[in-house]
């Protein structure tokens, strides 16, 4: 009944049996509130000339830029039509295998596994969402692959190297792929790259999306970093010309705009501080997010549905959590948006608190 992803709020209103208000603020999609880098608008006209020829099927120019930025070989990179395509390519790579998904997580991993007849099991992070290494490592036994969303969607929590390294070591012992979805890594102020460990741990696969940080969900662009042998296998599964020439060129411009990323990190940090202070003062519980979205629940209320409905009626669109195993609607997810929009959200939350002290 509920839409499986954020954005396109008319589907959410329809599912909730409400009519879409004339104006609304969509907090359900986790896109950079500062928008795309300015260069995209400034040079948009230049992209027109790219559409008259087939794109480079090897996406060499963008790979070169990413390789330089990350200090890796181009042969360790695959460019995809969004992170979503990359997840579906991985699904084909691990078809029929024993796969564990650390939940809650982005729902597309499970979908890709099911379509490819994987034997799927779950490790459920409980409230607080810390990773208890001994527990997870014990469950790894006999698995061929494990998915971890880090930073995590939907909680926004980020697991640093002191957690990731023992996990990697355990995956190496089990000969199990560790597939880490880093779609939101650019938003983390204290990000610790796993790229230096790629050589020692060829089981490591890093998935990234350019959608979120560069606010380009309509263009469809993401990439994967892994051992060269894995990249070859994944590339064989990818349709020719999968990434269009507009996205390739735009991606080249975006990836060079480090200033846009640092400005975003600073902005998100200060907005999150203000929001979290407000929530604390008004008795809302939030997840310990390191990025541009967070989970929230009203501590005063067992059932979050009345709050969800109240917000929708006020034109505030949260992301429901009915399809996140382990959350099942007990939390709501919000993106951090512009200051004006975050202030509006706090006003509406304040109104809710007044009615529900
Ligand atoms: C954790 C995670 N990974 C991957 C994706 C897919 O991103 P893209 O828009 O690049 O396909 C999303 C999109 O919401 C996501 O939340």
Automatic annotation (TrEMBL):
Reaction(s) this enzyme catalyzes, per UniProt: O-phospho-L-threonine + H(+) = (R)-1-aminopropan-2-yl phosphate + CO2
Keywords carried by this UniProt record: Cobalamin biosynthesis, Lyase, Pyridoxal phosphate
EC nos: 4.1.1.81
GO molecular function, one term: threonine-phosphate decarboxylase activity
CDD domains: AAT_like
Coiled coil: none
One Pfam family recorded for the sequence: Aminotran_1_2
Pathways involved: Cofactor biosynthesis; adenosylcobalamin biosynthesis
Enzyme kind, highest EC tier: lyase
Keyword flag Lyase: yes
Domain (Aminotransferase class I/classII large): residue spans on this chain: 25-343
Cofactor(s) listed in the protein's UniProt record: pyridoxal 5'-phosphate
Summary of the function given for this chain in its UniProt record: Decarboxylates L-threonine-O-3-phosphate to yield (R)-1-amino-2-propanol O-2-phosphate, the precursor for the linkage between the nucleotide loop and the corrin ring in cobalamin.
Matches recorded under NCBIfam families: L_thr_O3P_dcar
Name of the protein: threonine-phosphate decarboxylase
Protein species of origin: Niallia oryzisoli
Name of the gene this protein is made from: cobD
């Amino acid at each position: 009944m509920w839409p499986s992803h954020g954005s396109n709020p008319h589907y959410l209103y329809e599912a909730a049996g409400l009519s879409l208000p004339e104006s609304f603020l969509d907090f359900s999609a986790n896109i950079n509130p500062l928008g795309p880098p300015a260069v995209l608008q400034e040079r948009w006209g230049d992209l027109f000339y790219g559409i008259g020829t087939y794109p480079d099927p090897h996406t060499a120019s963008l790979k070169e830029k990413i390789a330089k930025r990350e200090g890796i070989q181009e042969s360790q990179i695959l460019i995809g039509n969004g992170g979503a395509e990359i997840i579906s390519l991985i699904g084909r790579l691990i078809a029929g295998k024993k796969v564990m998904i650390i939940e809650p997580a982005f729902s597309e991993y499970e979908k890709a596994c099911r379509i490819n007849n994987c034997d799927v099991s779950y490790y459920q992070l409980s409230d607080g969402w810390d990773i208890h290494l001994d527990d997870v490592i014990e469950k790894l036994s006999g698995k061929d692959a494990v998915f971890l969303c880090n930073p995590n969607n939907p909680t926004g929590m980020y697991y640093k190297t002191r957690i990731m390294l023992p996990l990697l070591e355990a995956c190496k012992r089990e000969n199990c792929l560790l597939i880490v979805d880093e779609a939101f890594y650019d938003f983390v102020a204290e990000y610790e790259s796993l790229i230096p460990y790629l050589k020692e741990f060829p089981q490591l696969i890093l998935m990234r999306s350019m959608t979120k940080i560069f606010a380009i969900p309509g263009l469809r662009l993401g990439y994967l970093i892994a051992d060269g042998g894995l990249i070859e296998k994944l590339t064989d599964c990818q349709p020719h010309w999968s990434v269009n020439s507009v996205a390739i060129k735009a991606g080249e411009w975006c990836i060079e705009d480090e200033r846009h990323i640092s400005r975003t990190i600073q902005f998100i940090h200060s907005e999150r501080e203000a929001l979290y202070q407000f929530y604390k003062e008004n008795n809302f519980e939030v997840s310990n997010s390191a990025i541009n979205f967070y989970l929230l629940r009203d501590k005063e209320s067992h059932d979050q549905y009345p709050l969800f409905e109240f917000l929708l009626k006020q034109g505030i669109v949260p992301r429901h959590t009915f399809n996140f195993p382990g959350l099942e609607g007990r939390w709501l997810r919000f993106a951090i948006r512009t200051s004006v929009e975050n202030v509006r959200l706090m006003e509406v939350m304040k109104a809710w608190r007044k009615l529900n002290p």
